[in-house]
Amino acid sequence: MSFNDISLTDDDPLFRETHYARYGYERTNIFGLVTLDSRLLTYMDRPDEFPSTRIDKLPVEPTPEYTQPFSKPVRHFIAASSSELTAFISRDGYWNCLNITLGLEAGKSEVIAIDAVESLVDDKISLFVALAVAEKSEEEESEDSSLSYSLRIYGNDRETKPFLEQALFALGDSSQIIPLLSPPMQISHVQINNDGKLQTAFLLTSMDGIIHMYAQSSEANQFVEMPSSTFFPMMGKISNHRTNILFMHILDQPNGKRVICAGGQNGELFLGFYNKDGKETKSHAIRIFSPITSVLVFQPRASNKTREDDELHLVVTCAIEQAIVYRSIDTDGLSTSKTLPLSGNFDSVLCSHVMDVDWDGEKEILIGTYGRQVLIYKQVSGTQVYTVLWKRQFAYPIYRMTHLDLNRDGLDELIVTTMYGVHIFQPNMKKAREKLLEVLQFVEASKRQKYELLIDYQRQKELEKSIVFEIN
Questions:
Q1: Domain end marker among 180, 199, 218
Q2: What is the pTM of this model?
Q3: Is-contact 432 359, C-beta < 8 A?
Q4: A single GO molecular function, which one (predicted)?
């Protein structure tokens, strides 16, 4: 496929942009997007100027008629600009944008990374948001101005509020500031088993070459630093060699197993597997000729149920090379790889994502580049070859991507964050309708076939009963 060929994909888009939200006069960083799965109810109505309205303060609280949390979490997402957060809260038929200020001073503070997690312990829901922040310690004009760094953990450590909007606006009421000696990079969260108790922990990669772990104390909601090597031996090896990790991905599988992958500034790639008891069963490490900008472990089948024989693949994006797909990493480790064609043609690749964009049961690979391009790759059936299925050019570099059903209509929207804003894309509704009709026809044909087989079976049984055997 030539470069000119992929320009034709814009004429038949998989997605159509429905909304763009700019970060005011600020920008975001490459770790400025996080999804949040929450069981808390939502209550705010659709704004008059949907979807452009940004809500800066909490409206009058309703009188709750039903405050029991959802049994199944609903996905939302939060985008961080330099000094504030914008929470996109999903609702039936619409969404709300909440502008959450946490006391960070514009022009002096800068959010480097964000992570968010909701924990459920003893039927109590707690919401935690972690920010890695850089602050100017002197006046901007001073020649002696320098930066100080901190990890700020905001938590709903009071009585659990019944509504998510209330919990988000109350984040600033409780915070813990942990000073950092080196510039922080990415924040991830993980559940650990500490002395038989499940605890929420944040993992912070840093330019000191150490993966720092901060676990929630069992006595209070304060977080204390613990050696990550105690729970993850691979992280101990990384920290011992002072490897600057730029990006880390943790995949918790439904069967209780866990896979952790980390990519380094000098091209180091680490991969570790953990069993249901949290023990490391195997690990792999290689080096490639490029700083690694993101890693993503994924299961190629689009199914909520994981089977023991399901494969696992790994997408690695690089600053000066093409994106790489390592296949069957659970059995082959890092020995089998394929590059994504044309992925190196649009400057550095900064991020990757996977989702089933065409509803065929197989996940496609999405990458975003500093050259302002999003490309979607599909694996050719029966081969290990990937081709470009869709592309889109933006006004600014692509920092992160995710997907979720933001308006709860049954179809996932594609979320793309660039340097200066958030783009929301809706799936092609015409193709969605065609696919739905195709599935309904298949289901109807299957039901008809099963009914005909049942009728034939009943007729066969009746014939067997009518046979009379003569005994001589």
A1: 180
A2: 0.88
A3: yes
A4: actin filament binding
Smallest Cα–Cα separation from 190: which of 211, 162, 171, 174?
A: 211
* E strand intervals along 147-302: 147-155, 175-180, 184-194, 197-206, 211-216, 223-227, 245-252, 258-264, 268-274, 280-287, 292-298
**pLDDT-derived band of residue 159, with 50, 70 and 90 as boundaries?**
low
Cα separation of 14 and 1, whole Å? 19
Q: Which residue has the higher pLDDT, 432 or 250?
A: 250
Tokens of 463: 């014939």
Q: Is residue 76 part of a domain?
A: yes
Q: Is 433 exposed, middle or buried (0-12, 13-18, 19+ CB in 10 A)?
A: exposed
Q: Is the pLDDT of residue 213 over 90?
A: yes
Sorting pLDDT into bands at 50, 70 and 90, what band is 106?
Answer: confident
- How far lies 143's CA from each of 53, 106, 139, in Å? 41, 20, 9
If one counts the domains in the chain, the total is 2
Tell me, what DSSP letter sits at residue 47?
Answer: P
- pLDDT at residue number 65: 72
- For 155, half-sphere exposure in the C-beta direction (CA atoms, 13 angstrom radius) is 23
Nearest-angstrom CA–CA distance, 284 and 234: 9
Last residue of a domain, one of 180, 199, 225: 180
Q: What is the pLDDT of residues 21-65, one digit of tens each?
A: 998 778 999 999 999 999 999 999 898 888 888 898 887 766 667
For 368-398, write each residue's pLDDT tens digit.
Answer: 999 999 999 999 888 889 999 999 999 999 9
Q: In what order do the strands lie in the sheet with 54-55?
A: 33-38, 74-80, 84-91, 94-101, 54-55
Torsion, Cα 225 226 231 233, to 10 degrees, reads 100
What residues make up the domain containing 456? 431-460
* CA distances in angstroms from 395 to 52, 398, 420, listed in the order given: 19, 9, 9
Q: Are the C-beta atoms of residues 230 and 192 closer than 8 Å to each other?
A: no
Q: Is residue 245 part of a domain?
A: no
CB of 26 closer than 8 Å to CB of 82: yes
The strands making up 197-206's β-sheet, listed across from edge to edge, are 184-194, 197-206, 211-216, 223-227
CB 17 within 8 A of CB 137: no
Residue 268 lies in a domain: no
At which residue do the structure tokens 């993980």 appear? 190
